[in-house]
């Protein structure tokens, strides 16, 4: 799928377009972006982090209600220590920035994933960010960090099992809604649209449960650091053209 930036938005007058309530983004391609420029991968992640702020603010400015970005998966710990270390430094720096800048835009940050494994200073920052979010009323920005769709489901199932063991829940009452209410996204609508730049056709363990009926848009020629608001607009137009049937006709 090749977005034509020039034509972004041409086919749909903005006021008639149906916007997704919740957009997920797999911020892929930082490594390749750096390699193309002969730079270390960590600089690709830095460029990706700068772009994360730009796209989140743009999404908020056009009225998206929820945005979820995949920042660090449960599998990303397998990367070389140096790269993981560089990412942790970036998380600290950009969360501090986001905490300051997003306040003005009323963006409400929420974390998806097991954040208990991070260093004490990063955990403190995460807590501070979530605390500040309580005062916000704007777009909910989920940052998935040490997140995996499978481990999220296991985590939810464990909570349900504990309730059954304690006698506060009957196995008969375990249904889709009950499980959803124990996911990190509890109370939020499922993503309507998931965008993946950099041309990989896989889910990479991202929102496995919630993405059951999400529309996917894979953008082949764009690496995450180069992804612009115009690319997002193009994806939103493409989404508006889709005929969602949710298994019906
Ligand atoms: C995938 O690209 C990207 C990541 C594993 C890291 C994404 C993180 C950021 C953009 C920083 C966000 C910062 C905050 C504060 C949320 P890749 O490394 O797999 O790229 P490649 O496939 O080209 O190697």
How would you describe this protein?
- The chain is an alpha/beta fold.
- It has seven helices and six strands.
- The chain has a six-stranded parallel beta sheet with strand order 3-4-2-1-5-6, with helices on both faces.
- It is globular.
- The structure holds farnesyl diphosphate.
- Farnesyl diphosphate is lined by residues 27-32, 45, 48-49, 52, 71, 76, 90-91, 94-95, 143.
- Farnesyl diphosphate binds next to α1, α2 and α3.
Q: Which cofactors or ions or other ligands sit in this model?
A: farnesyl diphosphate
Identify low-pLDDT runs.
none
Helix content: 40-55%
Number of strands: 6
Mean pLDDT equals 94
The ordered string of helix (H) and strand (E) elements is EHHEHEHEHHEEH
If strands are numbered along the chain, what order do they take across the biggest sheet?
A: 3-4-2-1-5-6
Strand content: 5-15%
Oligomer: single chain
Q: What is the 3D form?
A: globular
- What is the rounded Rg? 18 Å
* CA distance, first residue to last residue: 25 Å
Main beta-sheet annotation: 6 strands, parallel
